[in-house]
Specification:
- The chain folds into two domains: about 55 residues, lambda repressor-like DNA-binding domains (434 Repressor (Amino-terminal Domain), Orthogonal Bundle); about 110 residues, Zincin-like (2-Layer Sandwich), CATH 3.30.2010.10.
- The relative contact order is 0.09.
- It is elongated.
- The protein is mainly alpha-helical.
- Helix content is about 65%, strand content about 10%.
């Protein structure tokens, strides 16, 4: 019965077995075994699938992404920029962005992150893109050229090494 519940939820979410497996951190074979009745999913696996279903509502998913992005922005701002990024930056996850993972509009205090990039690279990739865009904003706020220049590359390298230790 538990495997049938997993299958029903997976189908409601319009996911393949591989997509569901990736989302909850198991193998596709594990999902296949649950659904076929060959093995029973653990209580933790069932809870993960149920949580995924709850989070699949677009409003809830966006809310969680926004909160996570805000917390990450604030943490990086303190750790790497000494809180120099002033004002409330808006972080928007865009479904329209297909060819780039992010873009900054520092004059509007807005950073766009690509939903496609999030799907492709996961949260870790989105965080890397956020760092990149934050450097553009930081340079803008310091009234410096904010393109991909030497100062930009140096600051980004410093941030990456500081946060990887």
């Amino acid at each position: 019965m538990k495997g049938q519940k997993v299958k029903r939820i997976r189908q409601e979410l319009r996911m393949t077995q591989a997509e569901l497996a990736r989302q909850i951190g198991v193998t596709r074979l594990a999902v296949s075994h649950w659904e076929s009745g060959f093995r029973k999913p653990s209580l933790l696996a069932i809870k993960a699938v149920e949580m995924l279903k709850k989070l699949s509502s677009p409003d809830r998913f966006t809310e969680i992404l926004q909160r996570e992005a805000r917390e990450t922005f604030d943490r990086i701002n303190q750790q790497c920029f000494g809180g120099e990024l002033k004002g409330k930056y808006q972080i928007i996850f865009s479904k329209q962005m297909k060819t780039t993972k992010g873009t900054a509009l520092p004059q509007k205090k807005t950073i766009f992150l690509s939903m496609a990039g999030l799907g492709e690279s996961g949260w870790k990739g989105a965080e890397e893109t956020l760092k990149h865009e934050m450097v553009h904003c930081w340079l803008y706020e310091k009234h410096r050229p904010w393109g991909h220049n030497r100062e930009f590359k140096s600051k980004l390298k410093t941030i990456i090494s500081a946060l990887s230790t």
